[in-house]
């Protein structure tokens, strides 16, 4: 009986400590948010200037709101353009760090290109680089075909492989925010397919929701993520995209164990709130 009371007292003490730590954390978080506010305002202004500059300098049309929303989750043009620009810039920087600058590739594929948020910022590459892009979304692809035709060759693919490309077709493949939405069976099928169409030595940048996004994992999926290092969480349907298009999250250990069956893994680096897995065939 005494032991039980002692345990109960200990439990209550720990609970009080936990509540106090939670209050301290909330307080620190609100202080941090205040401190960050001016920086975030500066970032927003910089993003806006960047987007305006792109609109002035590039003749490429901007996709309609419905298509932007589908890939970007927000309706405004400014963040659509500035995030696309930031991702494209980050991709080029990582390639330079890998000693494989974008200009060194001959055939580049943007897998899951959507309405061209990223690929539009690859305008101006030398003629020796041929750009291809593919997506399941027929409306996005037909918009790209009409409006970005001088930039790349666009094609529509099915939910499942294969793609209409010969083996060993590309020396660089980019998939931004595609493996962040697939169930495991489709993920494995697409990894196998991308390996098929990559040339020996090709580089692939495949982005995932890594550790820094785990706070977005719905509580019902947290156990699975802890247990397996991977979870596929149902978050609702995105209008215009198939039902399987949900949210998946990957730990580094899961990537190392499963993706290394397909590719040599050169590293995992952060890029605009996702992680890019740098793979090599
Ligand atoms: C978040 S959007 C990103 C689009 C583009 N990569 C970007 O960064 O703007 C995800 C894209 O993946 C596409 N997608 C989903 N499943 C796919 C699949 N099996 N094959 C090709 N694309 C797919 C969707 O249609 C959508 O355009």
Which outline best applies? globular
Ligand catalogue: S-adenosylmethionine
Radius of gyration: 22 Å
Tally of separate helices: 7
Which CATH class is shown?
Alpha Beta
Order of helices and strands: HHHEEHEEHEHEEHEE
Stated plainly, the CATH topology is called: Rossmann fold
The percent range for strand residues is 15-25%
How would you sum up this structure, described in words?
The protein has a single domain (65-280), classed as Rossmann fold (3-Layer(aba) Sandwich), CATH 3.40.50.150. The protein is 45% helix and 20% strand. The chain has 7 helices and 9 strands; from the N terminus they run αααββαββαβαββαββ. It is globular and about 80 Å long. It has helices spanning 2-57, 65-72, 77-97, 138-147, 184-197, 219-228, 252-259, and strands at residues 107-111, 130-135, 153-156, 170-175, 198-208, 230-233, 247-250, 264-271, 274-280. The N and C termini lie far apart (65 Å). A 7-stranded mixed sheet has the order 3-2-1-4-5-9-8, sandwiched between helices. A two-stranded antiparallel sheet has the order 6-7. The chain has 281 residues and is α/β, with parallel strands linked by helices. The longest helix has 56 residues, at 2-57. The structure holds S-adenosylmethionine. S-adenosylmethionine binds at residues 71, 111-114, 117-118, 135-137, 140, 157, 159, 176-178, 181, 241, 245.
């Amino acid at each position: 009986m005494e032991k039980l009371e002692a345990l109960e007292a200990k439990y209550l003490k720990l609970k009080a400590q936990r509540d106090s730590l939670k209050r301290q954390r909330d307080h620190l978080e609100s202080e941090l948010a205040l401190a960050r506010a001016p920086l975030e305002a500066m970032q927003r202004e910089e993003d806006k200037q960047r987007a305006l500059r792109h609109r002035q300098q590039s003749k490429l049309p901007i996709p309609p709101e419905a298509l932007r929303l589908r890939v970007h989750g927000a309706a405004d043009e400014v963040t659509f353009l500035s995030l696309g620009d930031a991702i494209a810039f980050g991709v080029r920087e990582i390639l330079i760090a890998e000693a494989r600058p974008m200009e060194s590739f001959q055939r580049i594929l943007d897998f899951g290109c959507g309405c061209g948020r990223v690929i539009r910022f690859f305008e101006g590459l030398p003629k020796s680089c041929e750009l291809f892009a593919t997506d399941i979304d027929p409306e996005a692809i037909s918009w790209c075909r009409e409006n970005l035709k001088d930039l790349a060759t666009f094609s529509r693919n099915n939910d499942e492989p294969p793609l209409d490309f010969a083996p060993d077709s590309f020396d660089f493949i980019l998939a931004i925010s595609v493996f962040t939405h697939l169930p495991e069976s489709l993920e494995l099928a697409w990894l196998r397919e991308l390996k098929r169409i990559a040339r020996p030595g090709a580089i692939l940048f495949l982005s995932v929701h890594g550790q820094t996004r785990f706070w977005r994992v719905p509580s019902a999926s947290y156990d699975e993520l802890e247990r397996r290092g991977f979870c596929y969480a149902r978050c609702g349907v995105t209008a215009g995209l198939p039902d399987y298009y949900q949210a998946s999250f990957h730990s580094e250990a899961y990537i190392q164990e499963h993706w290394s069956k397909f590719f040599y893994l050169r590293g995992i680096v952060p890029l605009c709130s996702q992680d890019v897995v740098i793979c090599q065939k």
